[in-house]
Structure formats: C-alpha cells, structure tokens
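One such given next:
>
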Amino acid sequence: MRILKFIVILFSCQLFAQNATFSTSEAKNFKESVSSKAETIENLQADFRQLKYMRTMEKTVESGGHIWFASPGKLKWSYTAPYDYQLLFKDASLYIIEDGQSRKMNTGHSEIFAKMGELVSGSFNGRILEMESLFRTTFSKEGTITKASLIPKDENLAEMFSEIWVFFNAEKYIEKVKLLEPSGDYTEIKLSNFKINQNIPASVFQHK
C-alpha cells in the first residue's frame, strides 16, 4: 500500500512539473530567448492545418494550405483545401484573393485590422510576446512544449478573443496557435514542415 501511495504521489509530481507555471524570471528569460530567435528569422514558410470549432455546428471545420512570412510584416496564407483562396498582409493592407480576383482592405484606416495584421505576423515570428500593451501573458511548460497564454487587454481584441494560446517547441519555434473566442468557439492552427530563411520568390507576395 505504501508503495502504491508513493507511485501515485510521484506521478502527481511529474504531472505538476510538466505543467508548471513559469516564475517571473523564467518568463523573462524565455521571452528574451524567443526574441533572440526572432531576430534570426528573415523569412519562414510552413504547411498549416486549421481546425475551426463552432458550438452551432456538428462537425469541426478543417482547412489547410501553406503560409509564407517575410520580415518586416509580409504574411501570406494560401488555403488549398477545401477551397482555394489567399489572404495577404502587406504594407498595412489586407488583400483577399479568390478566383483570380484581388480585393484590398486598407488596414491603415482600421485600428482593428492593423492590430490583427500585427497579431498574426507576431504569432509566427514570436513578436507577439513583446506586445505587452495588448496582452497579459503567462507561461507554462508541457513536456518539451512551452505554452504562452495571452489574455487581451485591448477591448477590440477582447471582443474577438477571450484568450490566445501559443505553443513553442524546444527550438523556440511556434508550432501551434489556438484562438479562443468569448462564445466558446475556437480556431486551432498547427504548423509543420518548416523552412527557415530559404529563398521566397517575390511573386509570392504580389497581388493582381
């Protein structure tokens, strides 16, 4: 019986350690290491798989495609399944490209679009952790994965997201982002097949 109790206590301690919340100094060190890593990223590309859960729907909506990011602030999502369309953030503008047609939304005239462009770019180069005026952030460890939980301070963002979870792998690269909405709906984006600082043709960020 004593051995059984010891095993239960040991297992509980391991679970606690795997999900331990960072201290102030640990959080500071982690943010600095992510920032240093971000400094080395001129561009990246990856495949993504996106899951959208909505309480009003019976099934989770799944989509996927490829993403490209280039500093400073160029970001393109290319959805290939289940439909073909593209989203391009560039020069403070959002372009929606579908069926060969491009529509432009000037994010410079909309505070929320400007913040969303910054948020999305920051999510994939780690700069989101530096947005202290927009988020209150805590960190925890889950095995080899570090989870950053960001709660919006900004009222506009808080209307869209109750919390944002960003998951970093052991190399300090982001491999998953989960956007939780006040309604209970959420969007989860998983990244794979990373390519860091490899040539991206200029045509990728062009629009018609």
Remarks:
- The mean pLDDT is 78.
- DSSP finds four helices and eleven strands in the chain.
- Residues 34 and 172 are 6 Å apart (CA to CA).
